[in-house]
């Protein structure tokens, strides 16, 4: 199919042929299916109807639904009409070529983790921020849904104003978004997102793989402030704009070992790193130097919106005013930095603090936050728009510092137990990045003693316990965890193909390597033929001798046509192989008559024969 994809632009006929194959794959051979069947099939791959890459397809489909007075059935003609511009993406999805091919089983496990973590009621509300009372009364807003004729689930919306635009309407549902842009919807009751993940106090989470697949659990459309989760984003923008050398003239790159809001600098009189308050305040003075406050804020908002794939990014003026009124510690840090001449020439300390407070007051949802995390996981390219937002250098530096310094005083334990870049905020958010796989945004306000979300940390730990996402999980012989990047049967299929081709070509060295790696040397292909069948049919006597003398394979296994390896050797006239197999069969029959104790030396003999 790959060679077909590479030629899709060569002619209408080939387009039509590929679309037909895709149509009959989705409809399972039927001539027409309800539109809802197509939508459900999309969601099972992790794609969502709101994915920007599917906009043209969904717009045409929606018009067809709205123009009909009857239940709309998708036939071949309607399918061709709708999917033309999205054919490559859809083929990737239905061929399971996204980063997480078995998406259904993956999100099922994510839901299990969410349900486990939701039972954790430890933690306390942040003491670093003064919240308005309306925020403290935090129930889960229900989502009432109805279904139209085309099978779309449409939530009843409640309004939300977004900075820089008119009014953005958001529901209170939840979904996860993997890096492939896939999305899966579930009623609200907490949040965990893969790709960008949001975690909850009965809020939720969102996952977004690098291919744009999506999955969410809980109240993933509820806005919350980024707080310290904005620090890696701010740092990444500064590196993207000014470069590593200039930025690190003013801020270090070492963990401080102290609380995030301490009045303390390193031995060079620089903030230890950009993930503590002192470092973030200095970084805010490096973004768009010489611009006024409004220009700097608009620039940063536009950058963050690009990282979020133009999904919801807002601003909480209430939080901003609260930060300024109660930020005595940050003002003290600012004056200390000014005393030590930590700011670049021409920078105003009060302006830098004001900008820092604004950035901490930027609002996202678990959904938009997970896209930001997935953009970092995808090397700076937004997975749902395809736009390069950050340079590779900025992403690498940011993830390195998130890994070593991103979780306050818990950073060392996080690196040890989870082994992934992450950043937390006192709003209860945890932004987690699985490089080259997905981004996750979790949101749950109850915090532990160092200011991290209790449930957010718990979710990250459970995620790494279930999947081999820890940086060092792939060390040989260390752990056995699920790898969601592998398709079911991938390992076995590759083993069968490799073994059969080695036997076919007479490559006895390769066959020895497979045996030493403890591969099952009696693996069968779709015709029930073993490597011994193939080697015997091709007349490769060295391979046959190794399989019989060293591996002790069964010479009596029959293929689809009832033939054993000896039959194939005789049919094609390979007399040397016939002699080896006849002798081996006689030895096997004799061995069956020996007591069990006499068979033990054969185990040692097998190992010695492989060397």
Structure commentary:
By secondary structure, the protein is α+β, with helices and mostly antiparallel strands. It has 3 domains: 2-94, Orthogonal Bundle (Recoverin, domain 1), CATH 1.10.238.210; 96-485, Beta-lactamase; 490-610, Ankyrin repeat-containing domain (Serine Threonine Protein Phosphatase 5, Tetratricopeptide repeat, Alpha Horseshoe), CATH 1.25.40. It is built from 26 helices and 18 strands. The strands form 5 sheets. Strands 7, 8, 9, 10, 11, 12, 16, 17 and 18 form a 9-stranded mixed beta sheet that branches. A 3-stranded antiparallel beta sheet has the order 13-15-14. The chain has a two-stranded antiparallel ribbon with strand order 1-2. Helix 20 packs parallel to helix 22 (531-538) and helix 24 packs antiparallel against helix 25 (575-592). The longest helix is centred in the C-terminal third of the chain and has 18 residues, at 575-592. The two termini are 40 Å apart.
């Amino acid at each position: 199919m790959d060679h077909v994809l590479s030629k899709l632009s060569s002619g209408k006929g080939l387009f039509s042929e590929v679309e037909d194959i895709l149509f009959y794959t989705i409809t399972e051979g039927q001539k027409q299916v309800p539109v809802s069947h197509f939508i459900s099939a999309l969601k099972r791959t992790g794609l969502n109807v709101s994915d920007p890459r599917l906009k043209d397809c969904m717009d045409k489909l929606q018009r067809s639904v709205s123009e009909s007075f009857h239940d709309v059935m998708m036939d071949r003609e309607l399918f061709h009409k709708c999917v033309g511009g999205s054919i490559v993406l859809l083929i990737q999805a239905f061929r399971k070529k996204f980063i997480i091919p078995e998406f259904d089983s993956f999100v099922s496990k994510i839901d299990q983790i969410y349900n486990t973590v939701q039972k954790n009621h430890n933690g306390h509300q942040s003491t670093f921020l003064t919240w308005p009372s309306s925020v403290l009364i935090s129930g889960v807003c229900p989502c009432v849904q109805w279904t139209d004729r085309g099978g779309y689930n449409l939530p009843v919306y409640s309004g939300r104003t977004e900075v820089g635009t008119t009014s953005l309407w958001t529901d209170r549902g939840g979904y996860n978004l993997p890096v492939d842009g896939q999305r899966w919807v579930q009623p609200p009751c907490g949040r965990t997102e893969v790709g960008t993940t949001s975690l909850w106090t009965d809020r939720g989470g969102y996952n977004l793989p690098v291919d744009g697949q999506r999955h969410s659990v809980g109240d993933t459309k509820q806005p919350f402030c980024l707080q310290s989760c904005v620090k890696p984003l701010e740092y990444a923008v500064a590196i993207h704009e000014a470069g590593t050398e200039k930025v690190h003239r003013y801020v270090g790159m070492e963990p401080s070992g102290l609380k995030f809001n301490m009045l303390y600098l390193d031995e060079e009189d620089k903030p230890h790193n950009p993930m503590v308050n002192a470092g973030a305040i200095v970084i805010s003075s490096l973004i768009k130097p010489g611009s006024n406050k409004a220009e700097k804020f608009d620039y940063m908002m536009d950058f963050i919106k690009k990282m979020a794939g133009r999904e919801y990014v807002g601003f909480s003026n209430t939080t901003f005013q609260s930060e300024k009124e109660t930020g005595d510690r940050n003002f003290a840090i600012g004056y200390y930095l000014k005393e030590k001449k930590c700011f670049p020439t021409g920078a105003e300390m009060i302006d830098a603090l004001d900008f820092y407070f604004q950035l901490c007051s930027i609002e996202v949802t678990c959904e938009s936050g997970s896209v930001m995390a997935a953009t970092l996981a995808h090397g700076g390219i937004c997975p749902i728009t395809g736009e390069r937002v950050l340079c590779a250098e900025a992403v690498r530096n940011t993830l390195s510092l998130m890994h070593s310094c991103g979780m306050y005083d818990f950073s060392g334990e996080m690196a040890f137990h989870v082994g992934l870049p992450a950043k937390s905020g006192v709003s209860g958010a945890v932004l987690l990045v699985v490089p080259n796989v997905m981004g996750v945004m979790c949101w749950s306000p109850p915090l532990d003693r160092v200011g991290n979300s209790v449930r957010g940390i718990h979710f990250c730990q459970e995620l790494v316990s279930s999947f081999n996402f820890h940086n060092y999980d792939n060390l040989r012989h260390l752990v056995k965890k699920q790898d969601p990047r592998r398709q079911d049967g991938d390992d076995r299929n590759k083993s069968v193909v490799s073994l059969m081709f080695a036997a076919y070509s007479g490559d006895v060295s390769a066959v020895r390597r497979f045996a030493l790696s403890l591969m099952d040397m009696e693996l069968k292909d779709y015709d029930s033929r073993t490597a011994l069948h193939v080697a015997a049919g091709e007349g490769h006597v060295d391979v046959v001798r190794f399989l019989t003398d060293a591996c002790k394979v069964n010479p009596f296994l029959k293929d689809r046509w009832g033939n054993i390896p000896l039959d194939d050797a005789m049919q094609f006239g390979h007399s040397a192989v016939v002699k080896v197999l006849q002798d081996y069969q006689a030895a096997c029959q004799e061995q069956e008559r020996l007591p069990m104790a006499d068979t033990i030396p054969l185990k040692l003999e097998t190992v010695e024969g492989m060397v």
